[in-house]
Structure formats: C-alpha cells, structure tokens
Write a structure and sequence with these properties.
Strand 23 and strand 24 form a beta hairpin. It contains 18 helices and 42 strands. Strands 20, 21, 39, 40 and 42 form a five-stranded mixed beta sheet that branches. The protein has a four-stranded mixed beta sheet with strand order 14-9-8-17. Among the domains are: about 80 residues, Gyrase A, domain 2, CATH 3.30.1360; about 120 residues, Topoisomerase, domain 3 (Orthogonal Bundle); about 300 residues, DNA gyrase/topoisomerase IV, subunit A, C-terminal (Neuraminidase), CATH 2.120.10. By secondary structure, it is of the alpha+beta class. Helix 2 crosses helix 3, helix 12 packs across helix 15 and helix 16 crosses helix 17.
Length: about 850
C-alpha cells in the first residue's frame, strides 16, 4: 500500500510509453478492430446482446432507439450516447451493411449523407439474420465476463452462426493500424466454408471459385480481378469500383447517361454537386444538365449531354474526376486471440470454422449434461411408475416432505434429485398415456445422449454439423450478387481518351502562329460573302494554311527546309476564332528560321498509303506513310530539297490515285501517282512539271480514283478571291514532267493563283485571307465552267487583302446556307 504523502520519482519517458501503450491497446482491442470470430466490435456486440436481453426479436414490436441506447450505456458500454446510437444506426443501414443486423423504423440516414433522426424518434428491433448471431448464447457456448461495474455478465464474443466478418465487413482506425474489410455475398462465403471443411488444404485460388470478390450493398462494378486476388492472397489490396451507367436517348434526341448504382460509401448528393461544378467550370465538356431523379424505386442520376457531347468521353472524364470510379483499399486486420493480425481469405475462413467448432463442442456438452440430467429424472419416474402403489403408500405414511424424500431414497435407491422430482410430479402423470409419454421421452433422451457423446468423440462429425448449418443458413438468407465483377482491369485514362472527338478548324499563320477552334462556330454563308474575322494577328502576319480535322487526328507539319513535325490536333491550343494563335516554337522543337509550308491531318498511318509531296520547283516524291508514324519532337527529314526550292504541298495518296499540280501562273498538269516510284524519306524526288521561267508551283492535290466516278472537280482560287470549279476529267492524264495545260485564265482583276484543291461537289469550303478574314461556304452554288474561264467571286476582299489558304470538307448532302452576314462585324458571341 502506497504511503500518503510519499513522492516517488518516475521517469517521464517510461511513464509516457506505458500510458500510451495502455491507451493504444485499449483502442485496438476494445474499440476499433473486429474480432475474427463474430466480426463485431465491442459496441456492436453489446448493442445486439442488449436487444436480445430486452427480448426485442425480429417478430416482436419495435422499441424506441433511446430505450435501447440507454440500456446499452447503463449495462455494458459506459460511454456517450452518440457513438452508441451511431453504431446502431450503421447496423440498420441497408446501404452500409450487406445484411443489416438491426431492423430500423424511421429515418436512419441515406446515401445522400443525410443524418439520421434523433434517437427519441426512431425505433428498432433485431433483424431475423442477426438472431443467427445470438443463437445458443444461453447454452454456455461463449465466455462471459463482468461488465464495467461487475454488476452483470456480458459475452466476450457472440456464437455467430453467421460468418459476419466477411459477410458484412468492417472498417476502423486504431492506433498505428486500421482495418478495411469489404462486405461479401453470404451464399458465396457459405460455399467457401463448406469447401474448406471438405478440403482443408484448399488454396486461395480455389476459394476464389466460390468467393468471386466483394459484394457491396450499393452494387456497382468491380473492374478486374487482380486486386481481388492480391487482397485474398495477402490480406491487403485495392479494387477499383465503377458506377453502373446506361446510355439512353433523352429529350430532343440527345444522349442521356443514367447512373443507377454507385461505388460503396459514395455520397450521392455530393457527387451530383461535383458533376455540376465540373460542367459549370468546363473541366468536363459536353454536359448540359445533371439531375437527381432517385425515388422509392431506386437510384437514378440523369446526366443530359449537349448535342455535340460524346458519351464515351464524358464518361471517361467522370470516372477520372469524380467518385463515380473509386478505389476500395482492402486491409483485412482482425483480432485473433486478442491480438491484431492481417488475414488472407483462407485464414479468415479457417479461424471462423475453428470458432464454430468450439461453439458446437460447448453447445453439445451443455446439451449432453442437460440430457443426462433429464434421463436421470426420467429413470426415477420409471421406477416410481413401476412401483406406484408402494410409492404412494410410502409418501402417505411419511410425516413431512423431507421424510418422504428420505424414505423414497432409502426404499427405492433413488437420488435426492429423483426423489424430489417424484414428489413434485403431478397426479395426472399417473395416467396410462402419460406413462407412455415418459417412456418415449426417455428413449429419445437416451438416443440424444448417444448422439452427443458420439459427436463429441468425433471432430469430423462436428465439422459436418458446421457444414450442414452453413448450408441451411445459405438456403434461408442467401441471395444473388449485387456487385458485378468485370474481367476488364481499370486502367488510368490517357489524355487522349479524355478528349472529345470534335471537328475543328486548324489555322497556321505566315509567322507560324497556330490555333484551332470548333468548325461549328464558323457559320455557313453564300459564296461571294465577305466572311468574318478569323484572326487578329500582328501586322504583316497572315493565315497561310488551314485544315479541318478531328481533335484525335495527327497533324503533320512540313517546313520549307523539307522537314516534317507531328502534333496531335488536340495539342493545338483551342482559342477563339479571332485570336492570333500560339507560336509553333512553343509546341515543337522547330528552328526559328524554319517556316511551315504545308499542313495535313492524318487519322491513321495505314499501310498502302503514301505521302505525296511537291516542291516549288516542280519536284515530286512519294514515300510510304508508315515511315512518318514515329516523328521525333525535333522533326524528321521528309524530302531532300534542291537549292532554292521549298516544299509547298503534301497530301495522302494511294498507288491507283492521280495528281494535279497547279502553278502560280495558272498552269496545271495531271499524271498518275504510280508514275512516281516510292522513295525513302531522305530522297530528293523526281520532276513533276516543267516550269516556265519565273513560275513556281503553288498547289498540288490528289485525285482519288474511288470518287472520280462521282464527278469531282478542281477548285482554283486566286489572290483576289475569284474561284472556279472545273471538272477533273477536263484535265487529261499525261506523263509527269510535261508543261501542263491552262488551269485558270488570269487577269489583273483575278490576280495570280493562290490555292488549289480537288474536291467533290458536296463539300464546304473554308477560305482565309491575308487580312485574317475567314469565310465558310458551300461549293454547291458554284457552277462548273471551263479551264480557261476567270471564275466568280467566292470571297470579297478589302483593298490590299488577298486569299491566303483554303480548306474543304465533304458533307453528306446539300446544306441550306444562311443569309449573308453584315460585313462590318462578326455577330458570333
């Protein structure tokens, strides 16, 4: 006994260590981690036991939650009412527990993270399946220990006929460790238990044939099995869970994404808010509206897409930026013999089976003792009934009950228990039928004793009982899986997969400023219009190249030095139509003295396709397209140039196609692609057209022979905006190297040839001027005329302005042009 007033020196380091360890062990054992046997934490176990003691069964009336919480606090759990009620609420939530252990009535929260109603408003009772956790608890199946004030006894573990650890899972944060065990399907776990009993050497891979993976109460889809296999083999792993979605046709023919199931523990209201924020901030393109349409029938989140919204791309972005795809980290830590351990699937099942062996053994011993006690009494009844007259006479002659008991014991060799039972026996038991019942009961008890003794003597039979009870449990409560397991692993979405497919216009200025903008914002006008502002650049800077492409296409950029560079179209900055763009040197390792002279879009580097190039000096070359599939950041050699020549055009061609080249002075030539043999990237090429002094090639295009039968045309546009359609067939095919024929009659009014394209009749033409004006129009209004004609105005230019570049895109059918815009300004907001 410590003396009062005596001061003992204590090392502060040792005291802190001891106190902290005591605290840590208390948290680990008595608060945060579940027991491997019943899968419950102490507070959960006390709630279920207190409800059992109160007689609140699944078929009895509900009782106020406050009454239950008060009983738990007062008898077993001397902590605040809030944590007790929170634990009970979670046991009742069907979106938290795969198989709820508490049947709640009232507001017990929701997937929107709404808080439950106060405990004075809600009511609860045990669910039917939770009574399987408590069955046989009154048969000395588990150890009891004194409660906090030694006034009552409470179980240290529940008998747990239900394999609750795996079925409902558990989550908790202790000191220095944590647990995160996902819920599973009862039918699968029961099958696995039976398999382990029958095959003790079963491997984790064999068990995975039965336990497919976690089965969350909220359903959804697990992506891939590798994370599941790792978690089951080691006790730790990660599974990626993705929301269940469906694409449907919504209002106005627009695509609608319907979300019907979410990953486990995802807050639905927060998710809807997050999606709306991302759409509003334009971090996810293509979403018009998001609504929560959930009701009593189930969950339904409706995401309306814009007309140009692409469901696949939007979904990829949603999976990347929102909890619609979440990772569940598995850490199967539980208390085994009072100590925390990381368990794999086999160990978790084995520990449960060993515990059930102990429970059934203790239950059998209890039942055996009760049966022997009953048999002992029944043997006394049989003796009394066989000597009923003498028994009655003995009792009649006795003065007191004590003497009667003693006389019976002495005369018939009965024990005190037997003698007392005979004295307590009612006279009606003397009837003949009652005597037969006693004999039948005795026979049944003897049979029960024999069965229990045999059971206790044979452990394999105890395992058979476990297997039988587990099978019955599956039949009674088993159900189908809610969570689908996809064989497709969840992979990190690449940037390209998050970019929507979109038709865009890519422009390149004379000083190599590049940009893109959606083609849809370029309004269709009648030919002869003035266009709208397409670039506001520096003085002396003009649009030189323009192409229409998909955002996922590859952009090949050819320079005056005969080199080629590559960009993905989506890597080109998306800017307004009137902006000047971004300097190409900021995107590529291009030399400042090197300028882009040709630009084409390539969807795929398909074998059998060629890149056909033409220089200002009339030289041409074709090279297999696949040689340009891997272009380094600092570019590759595309063609070896002669001194003074520049690369002016490049296009995709096939062996059966033909080539049309047009010069600045209006000369044109048509010859077959196969006239030019394939050459390597570093070759110089061969002569395509013989030029007059002072003339140079301004454009080249490919005549696709698969569309030649559809009556294609050669479109030539001059500096001053005069354009002309000429049937391609009017250019006769000759051998390469000739002087060509007249392609366009040039005058002082028309100016020189600025650009040339070979096009089908149904296409849309985009023209950019040196002054930065851009017009998009259909060529349907242009009539086909002869090669020696001047053409008509396709774009009216301001004084001093001239055409810089043209681009064409084929359309499915005739378009209805808008009325000409007022030329003084662009009305697009």
């Amino acid at each position: 006994m410590t003396e009062v007033g005596v001061i003992k020196p204590i090392n502060i380091e040792e005291e802190m260590k001891s106190s902290y360890l005591d605290y840590a062990m208390s948290v680990i054992i008595s608060r945060a981690l579940p027991d491997v046997r019943d899968g419950l934490k102490p507070v959960q176990r006390r709630i279920l036991f207190a409800m059992h003691e109160l007689g609140i069964r699944h078929n009895s009336a509900y009782r106020k939650s406050a009454r239950i919480v008060g009983d738990v606090m007062g008898k077993y759990h001397p902590h605040g009412d809030a944590p007790v009620y929170e634990a009970m609420v979670r046991l009742a939530q069907d979106f938290s527990m795969r198989y709820p252990l508490v049947d709640g009535q009232g507001n017990f929260g929701s997937v929107d993270n709404d808080p439950p109603a106060a405990m004075r408003y809600t009511e609860a009772r045990l669910s039917a399946i939770s009574e399987e956790m408590l069955v046989d608890i009154d048969k000395d199946t588990v150890e009891f220990a004194p409660n906090f004030d030694n006034s009552l006894q409470e179980p240290t573990v529940l008998p747990a006929k239900l394999p609750n650890l795996l079925v409902n899972g558990s989550a908790g944060i202790a000191v220095g460790m944590a647990t995160s065990i996902p819920p599973h399907n009862l039918s699968e776990v029961c099958d696995a238990i039976v398999h382990v009993i029958e095959n003790p050497e079963a491997t984790v891979d064999e068990l995975m044939k039965y336990v497919k993976g976690p089965d969350f109460p909220t359903g959804a889809i697990i992506m891939g099995v590798e994370g599941i296999r790792q978690a089951y083999a080691t006790g730790q792993g990660k599974v990626v869970v993705r929301a269940r979605v469906e694409e449907v046709e919504g209002r106005g023919g627009r695509t609608q994404i319907i979300v019907s199931e979410l990953p486990y523990q995802v807050d639905k209201a927060a998710l809807v808010k997050r999606i709306a924020e991302l759409a509003r901030e334009r971090k996810i393109e293509g979403i018009a509206e998001v609504r929560d349409e959930s009701d009593r029938e189930g969950m339904r989140i409706a995401i309306d897409l814009k007309k140009d919204g692409q469901a696949g791309v939007v979904l990829n972005n949603l999976f990347k930026h929102t909890p619609m795809q979440s990772a569940f980290f598995i850490n199967m830590v539980a208390l085994v013999h009072g100590a925390p351990r990381v368990l794999n699937l086999k160990e978790a099942l084995t520990n449960y089976i060993e515990f059930r062996q102990e429970v059934i053994t203790r239950r059998s011993k209890f039942d055996l003792n009760k049966a022997k006690e009953r048999a002992h009494i029944l043997e006394g009844f049989r003796i009394a009934l066989d000597n009923i007259d003498q028994v009655i006479e003995t009792i009649r002659r006795s003065e007191t009950a004590e003497s009667a008991r003693a006389n019976l014991m002495n005369k018939f060799s009965l024990s005190q228990i037997q003698a007392q039972a005979i004295l307590d026996m009612q006279l009606r038991r003397l009837a003949r039928l009652e005597r037969n019942k006693i004999a039948e009961e005795y026979a049944e008890v003897i049979k029960t004793i024999a069965y229990l003794e045999d059971l206790l003597a044979n452990p394999r039979k105890i395992l058979s009982v476990i297997s039988q009870e587990t099978t019955e449990l599956k039949k009674k409560y088993g159900d189908g899986r809610r969570t689908e397991i996809s064989q497709q692993e969840a992979v990190e979405q690449t940037l390209e997969e998050l970019i929507p497919h979109q038709r865009v216009v890519v422009t390149m200025s004379n000083q190599d400023y590049i940009k893109r903008y959606p083609q849809s914002i370029q309004r269709l006008q009648r030919h002869g219009g003035k266009g709208v502002i397409g670039m506001v650049g520096r003085e002396a800077d003009v649009v030189r190249h323009i192409v229409t492409a998909d955002t996922h296409d590859n952009l090949l950029l050819f320079t005056d030095r005969g080199r080629v560079y590559r960009l993905k179209v989506y890597q080109v900055p998306d800017q307004s139509r009137a902006s000047k763009g971004t300097a190409l040197v900021n995107l590529l390792g291009i030399d400042l003295k090197e300028h882009v002279t040709a630009m084409i879009a390539v969807t795929e580097f398909t074998p059998g396709m060629y890149l056909f190039m033409a220089t200002s000096g009339g030289t041409v070359k074709r090279t297999p397209l696949e040689e340009f599939a891997s272009v380094r950041s600092n570019g590759l050699i595309a063609i070896k140039l002669q001194k003074g020549h520049e690369l002016v055009a490049a296009a995709l061609a096939r062996n059966e196609d033909e080539v049309i080249m047009v010069t600045r002075e209006g000369k044109g030539i048509r010859f077959q692609v196969k006239d030019v043999r394939p050459l390597s990237r570093t070759a110089a090429g061969v002569r395509g057209i013989r030029l007059a002094p002072g003339d140079r090639v301004v454009g080249m295009d490919i005549v696709r022979m698969d569309v030649e039968k559809q009556d294609t045309y050669v479109l030539t546009v001059t500096d001053n905006g005069f354009g002309k359609l000429t049937q391609t067939k009017t250019y006769r095919v000759i051998r390469r190297g000739g002087q060509g024929v007249i392609a366009h009659k040039l005058t002082g009014k028309t100016g020189k040839i600025a650009a040339v394209r070979q096009i089908p009749r149904e296409c849309q033409l985009t023209i950019a001027s040196v002054g930065g004006m851009v017009i998009r129009t259909s060529v349907e209004g242009l009539r086909a005329i002869s090669r020696i004609s001047q053409g008509v105005h396709v774009m009216r230019l301001d004084p001093g302005d001239r055409v810089a570049a043209i681009s064409c895109q084929q359309i499915d059918g005739p378009s209805e042009p808008e009325k000409p815009e007022k030329p003084e300004k662009d009305k697009l907001k």
